[in-house]
Specification:
Number of helices: 15
Helix content: 40-55%
Shape: globular
Strand order of the largest sheet: 3-9-8-7-6-4-5
Distance between the termini: 47 Å
Bound molecules: pyridoxal-5'-phosphate
Largest sheet: 7 strands, mixed
Number of strands: 13
Strand content: 15-25%
Structural class: alpha/beta
């Protein structure tokens, strides 16, 4: 034992506490539904990303149980070694059909999908251009890839085009002749602000400058578009985005991540995405639950579930829940600014039986702390009324 280690780590934790940034785990003693038991207290839950309430849907739970029974609790190895089960192939076929893509590949998480894919597609000599507010998994993938990373201000098309132009000129220099891949990455609905990216304009720009586009639909899949495929579908951009990414752990109600695209892209990732190659396959229960979630989303019941979610979103809009910021998704941020104040506000709400997380650095920028309300089709109108009432009783800064 090196005694200095714990002393050093304790100092770092102390520093986080001073800044109002310390985090700890809370114990949940029930299913994570619209209400749950948090540290043994029953509260209304506005923290989950289970937008359609599918995490506790019978058909998903039964599919998971059946897969565990038929294929076992574990997958035993990486997909390329021995662990590629029919439940994995079925999930990928269903994903590709759902997204209208030639093929799909499933990862154990969205985080693994992002890291593995970005690092497989670009490396030293290439350029990755990302929106300032993209998820940590994309930032980490971009950094790890060794490509040159450029960050444009949130949804700023002018700056994006400047960067694309710069990347093109750079790629045409003689010492970059055999490289010069340029990859643009954005989310479709942003995870902490709930606002959309101007995808049609981004598609136009990447085509103009010869770049590839990767869109993370983590918070749009299952919710947007007439087929509930995501914002790409809603904006009629099918077939125009090279790399479609998402998670199976949010609206889909299970766990895992995916990439959809051309057959060649998927074959390439099977061979080059290290987070896929060197990691045990998702457990059969997770893959089967995800397939059942996709089946549910595409059914009439799924359509009704999304309509119920939009009823809640419209209720939040009518009550001006976000205090002036437009609401256009289940993610409703109430910007506070100060980290300690955001934590104080969240604790006040919790005393009234309402759980809304105080989201702070490093999830958002320093000084941009917020209450992040996450609405779900599982919430009742009465539960949202209680949230509105609870917030109105609080002196928000
Ligand atoms: C949650 C999330 C991920 C990661 O997905 P997991 O399956 O939870 O690992 C990636 N991107 C965005 C935008 C997310 O919100």
């Amino acid at each position: 034992m090196i005694p200095e280690m714990d002393a050093l780590l304790r100092a770092a934790l102390q520093e986080r506490k001073h800044q109002g940034l310390y985090r700890s785990l809370r114990d949940v003693g029930s299913p994570v539904g619209a209400e749950f038991l948090l540290d043994e207290k029953r509260v209304i839950n506005f923290a989950s990303n289970d937008y359609l309430g599918l995490a506790n849907e019978d058909s998903l739970k039964e599919a998971a149980a059946r897969a565990a029974h038929d294929f076992g609790a574990g997958s035993a190895a990486s997909r390329l070694i021995s662990g590629s089960l029919s439940v994995h192939r079925e999930l990928e076929e269903m994903l590709a059909a759902f997204k209208g893509a030639e093929a799909a590949i499933a990862f154990s998480s969205g985080y693994a999908a992002a890291i593995g894919t970005v690092c497989a597609l670009v490396g030293r000599g290439d350029v990755v251009i990302v929106d300032k507010l993209v998820h940590a998994s994309i930032v980490d993938g971009a950094r790890l890839s060794g490509a040159k990373l450029r960050v444009f201000p949130h949804n700023d098309l002018g700056r994006l085009e400047e960067m694309l132009q710069w990347a093109r000129q750079r790629a045409s220099l003689p010492d970059h002749a055999d490289h010069g891949r340029v990859l643009v990455i954005t989310e479709s609905i942003f995870s902490m602000d709930g606002d959309p990216a101007p995808l049609a304009e981004i598609v136009r720009l990447k085509n103009k400058w010869g770049a590839w586009l990767m869109v993370d639909e983590a918070h749009a899949t299952g919710i947007f578009g007439s087929g509930r495929r995501g914002l790409i579908e809603e904006l009629h951009l099918d077939g125009q985005v090279e790399i479609q990414m998402g998670t199976l752990g949010k609206a889909v109600g299970a766990a895992g991540g995916y990439i959809c695209g051309s057959r060649t892209l998927i074959d390439y990732l099977v061979n080059f995405a290290r987070s896929f190659i060197f990691s045990t396959a998702p457990v059969p229960a997770a893959a089967a639950a995800a397939s059942a979630g996709l089946r549910f989303i595409q059914s009439i019941e799924g359509k009704k579930r999304v309509e119920a979610l939009w009823d809640r979103i419209n209720q939040a809009k009518a009550a001006s829940l976000a205090r002036g910021t437009p609401i256009g998704s289940p993610i409703v941020p109430i910007l506070i600014g100060s980290e300690t104040e955001a934590v104080r506000q969240a604790e006040l709400l919790l005393k009234n039986g309402i759980f809304v997380p105080a989201v702070r650095y490093p999830t958002v920028a320093k000084g941009k702390a917020r209450l992040r309300i996450s609405l779900s089709a599982a919430h009742s109108a009465e539960q949202v009324r209680q949230l509105v009432g609870g917030l109105q009783r609080q002196p928000l800064m």
